[in-house]
Amino acid sequence: MTTSTRGASKAPAVLVLEDGRIFRGRAYGAVGETFGEAVFSTGMTGYQETLTDPSYAHQIVVATAPQIGNTGWNDEDDESRRIWVSGYVVRDPARVPSNWRAKRSLDDELVAQDIVGISGIDTRALTRHLRERGSMRSGIFSGEAIAAESELVTRVQAQPHMKGASLYEEVATKETYVVPAVGEKKFTVAAIDLGIKGMTPHRMAQRGIEVHVLPATASVDEVYAVEPDGVFFSNGPGDPATADGPVALMTAVLERRTPLFGICFGNQILGRALGFGTYKLKYGHRGINQPVQDRTTGKVEVTAHNHGFAVDAPLDKVSETKFGRAEVSHVCLNDDVVEGLQLLDQPAFSVQYHPEAAAGPHDAAYLFDRFVSLMEGQRA
Q: Which of 83, 176, 322, 355 has the maximum number of C-beta atoms within 10 A of its C-beta?
């Protein structure tokens, strides 16, 4: 939720957490008030891709890197049609952007899209607080929106929790669209948009895949009307425990044994379809420097993450499901969180992170090739 006015970027601002902790700084971007779950992202670059990632809907993002905005804002790197974060928290915003592709400053873009932010606070102290206490409800108030501290804390505490929030339909496309294959068309994929990032269908298109991006509410008949060689379930915001519709759709895809690939929210949907539970992480994984091991090869990858929920699946054994045997294929080396699943008896797998990696490392780009291999095997 955001209410804001433009300009007055030097107005005083406060960040209020639900546990009563308050940080004071200056307005950055639009002036007004906004509410969301306070989370931190550890990426030193890629703030434009972060801000336009639909998975950040209803969240106030704290940048742990101290200097933000150095490369300004361009017209090429957006991951969706708009900025989705509820608010933005930075320590030291760039005074003047410097990049040959920049069209305007980050501050200008935040103002243009009415995104309320705050600068000049100790983001190290804030990040340590969130690591110790967990991600929590918060609000940014600037200019005339500032009131007595007790009143602001009460208003923050009245906001809904992220646990139990159903948000994927809010960010997904309402109409189907097609991303054509680059060069020769080799496959057709039906991609279920739960909050998809623009780079994801692009990565598939680079591999000769024509991608039909369907709304989150697409039916089984609508999916198979495009005659897909494979089905993809995207990233997205909110609690996967609320996503009964996508789980039912994925279950139908698994019953047809169509090659299937899911990322992030799609990984959690696969977990539920296989009978595993999901749970909320204390403060989540967000950034472009998270170490993950591919247990099928032993290789360690540096990966891009944005998730606050995870799948509860056993790491030490192969599980029996109604679709055959399943195992945890990837695991986070920081905390042993499940970062990937795969079925051993049919062509389906998923990961909890972003192999399209915009912006971020490209260690996991091979996963799109793995999806292609599944479709080649099914066709053969």
A: 355
Active site residue 356: yes
Residues forming beta bridges with residue 24, ordered by sequence position: 14
- 């369907």: which residue's tokens? 214
Q: 350: part of which helix (H) or strand (E)?
A: strand 348-351
Give the number of other Cβ atoms within 10 Å of residue 99's Cβ.
Answer: 11
Nearest to 250, CA basis, from 294, 213, 218, 280:
218
Beta bridge partners of 39: 61
Q: Which of 18, 109, 264, 330 is catalytic?
A: 264
Phi, psi torsion values for 273, nearest 5 degrees: -65, -30
Annotated catalytic residue within 18, 37, 339, 356: 356
| Chain-centre distance for alpha carbon 170 | 14
Rounded mean pLDDT, 175-187: 97
Q: Count other Cβ atoms within 10 Å, centred on residue 17.
A: 21
CA distance linking residue 336 with residue 57, whole number of Å: 26
Q: How far is 368 from 353, CA to CA, in rounded Å?
A: 13
* 273/343 Cα distance (integer angstroms): 12
Q: Please give the share of the chain, as a percent, with pLDDT higher than 70.
A: 98
The predicted-structure confidence for 69-108, as pLDDT tens digits, reads as follows 999 999 999 999 999 999 999 999 998 999 999 999 999 9
Whole-angstrom distance, CA of residue 13 vs CA of residue 114: 15
Say how far apart CA 179 and CA 198 lie, in whole Å: 10
d(CA 129, CA 126): 5
Reported as a single tens digit per residue, the pLDDT across 324-350 is: 999 999 999 999 999 999 999 999 999
DSSP run (H or E) holding 376: helix 366-379
Q: Is 144 one of the catalytic residues?
A: no
Q: Which residue(s) pair with 34 in the sheet?
A: 2, 140
Position 4 scores a pLDDT of 53
Looking at residue 226, the DSSP 8-state letter turns out to be T
Contact 254, 287 (CB under 8 A): no
For residue 357, is pLDDT > 90? no
